[in-house]
Amino acid sequence: MPPTAPHTPTVLLAEDDRAIRNALERALTLEGYRVTAVADGVEALAQVHRSRPDVLVLDVMMPGIDGLQVCRVLRAEGDRTPVLILTALVETADRIEGLDAGADDYVVKPFDVEEVFARLRALLRRVPPVPSVSAGPPAQETHPPRTPPGAPEAPDGRPGVPEAGRFVGAAGLRMDPRARRAWRGRRELELTRTEFELLELLLRNAGVVLDHSTIYDRIWGYDFGPGSKNLAVYVGYLRRKLDEPGAPQLIHTVRGVGYVLRED
C-alpha cells in the first residue's frame, strides 16, 4: 500500500485586529498549518459549524461575540476542539475566567510567534488520533424492515419504522431527532447542528413563547445578555431555510420577550 500522506493541521484563527490577524495567518501558513482567518466571533462559530478545525486560536476582545463566548458556545455544544486564547489581559482572574470558559491554553499579548507554535504543538499532541479504517470483508447488504400495514410513513414518503415517539411534528414540520433530519411538508431541510437543536426546541414547545434567556440556556448553556445578536442570527438562518413563497411564516418574534413557533 502507498504511504499515507501526513495530515496538515487546520487552524481557525479569530482576531479582529487586521494587522495581527494577517501576520499570524502568514506565520501559521509558513509553519505548515492550513489556516482559516475570520474577524469576529459570529463568523468563527459559523465556520466551525461548516468545517471543524483541528484547533482554534481565539482573541478575547472581539466585538459582538468575544473569544470566551465562542468557547462557551462550543463547549455547551459538546465540541471539544482544542482552543488557544490570545489575550492582553494578564490578571490571574482573567486567566481563570478563560480556563473556566473551556479554553485549553492561552498566550498573552504581545506574544512571540514561536510561543504560539509551541503551544499549538502541545495542544495537538493531546488530541487522540483519528483511528484508521482497516480493510475488511465487504459489508453485507441490509434491507430496512418491512413496515406493517397501517404504520406511519417517514416524512419523505418512504416506509418508516414504527417507533413510539420517533417523530416530533407541528405546524407542517416534522423532525426525526435520532436521525437528525427535518422536513417542511415533503421538503427536507439542510440544517447545521445548532439550527437543528434550535428548531427542535421551538417545535417541542410549539405555540409557547420562549424567552431569550431560556433559549440561550437550552441551546448554548450560556446567556449572552440583552446586547447579543447571536440568537437573532440563528433565527434568521432558520427562517431562510424554513420559509416558502405563499406559505405562512413559522417562527415569530415576540418583541421584548423571545420567539414562538406557530402557523398563523
Description:
The chain is α/β, with parallel strands linked by helices and 264 residues long. The chain is built from 8 helices and 12 strands. The strands form 3 sheets. Strands 2-1-3-4-5 form a 5-stranded parallel beta sheet, with helices on both faces. It has a 4-stranded antiparallel beta sheet with strand order 6-7-8-9, covered by helices on one side. It has a 3-stranded antiparallel beta sheet with strand order 10-12-11. Helix 2 runs parallel beside helix 3. The chain starts with 9 loop residues before the first strand and ends with a strand. The relative contact order is 0.10. About 14% of the residues have low confidence.
Give the gist of this structure.
The protein has helices spanning 18-30, 41-50, 67-76, 92-100, 113-126, 193-204, 212-219, 230-242; strands spanning 10-14, 34-38, 55-59, 83-87, 105-108, 168-170, 173-176, 181-184, 187-188, 210-211, 251-254, 258-261. It has 264 residues and is an alpha/beta fold.
CA radius of gyration: 22 Å
Percent in strands: 15-25%
Distance between the termini: 61 Å
Low-confidence stretches: 129-164
DSSP helix fraction: 25-40%
Tally of strands: 12
H/E element string? EHEHEHEHEHEEEEHEHHEE
Q: So what's the overall shape?
A: elongated
- How many helices? 8
Oligomer: single chain
Characteristic terms for this protein:
alpha/beta, 264 residues, single chain, five-stranded parallel sheet, 8 helices, 12 strands, four-stranded antiparallel sheet, elongated
Strand and helix map with partners:
Blueprint: E1 10-14, H1 18-30, E2 34-38, H2 41-50, E3 55-59, H3 67-76, E4 83-87, H4 92-100, E5 105-108, H5 113-126, E6 168-170, E7 173-176, E8 181-184, E9 187-188, H6 193-204, E10 210-211, H7 212-219, H8 230-242, E11 251-254, E12 258-261
Parallel strand pairs: 1-2, 1-3, 3-4, 4-5
Antiparallel strand pairs: 6-7, 7-8, 8-9, 10-12, 11-12
Helix pairs in contact: 2-3, 6-8
